[in-house]
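Weekly puzzle thread! Below is a chain. First person to post its structure in token form gets bragging rights.
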Amino acid sequence: MVKEYQNNPFRNLLKVKEINVSDGAAEVRIDLFPDLFNFSGNVHGGVLASLIDISIGSAVRSTLYENQRSSTVELKINYIKPANGAFLLAKSSLSHRGTTLVVGTSEIFNDQNQLVAIGTATFFIKESAC
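Winning reply:
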């Protein structure tokens, strides 16, 4: 199974840290900084959506073989409460792992362990040329 991923500028922009990734599960954290907040003083909803996508993508990646790659084909998010604080932690797992489609879920918690968002995503698995 693939354990490494190529450097990704968008992940770097958000300062994503993979805490734990293995066997179809992942914990991904971002430390919050001013550029991630909206005018209301809360984390922008797009950041939460990205964190769901990235965390489920990390869980998916932990199940891929060397010749496989994945792409998000669907994403849904429910915003539970405004997100703020020092960091956000996304905990993800896979609900279904088929040959070409994978469905995962993610819960995002703030630094007080309060649930701020829940999401699901579907990924398409394909064989890569390299």
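Puzzle host: Confirmed. Bonus trivia for everyone else. The radius of gyration is 14 Å.
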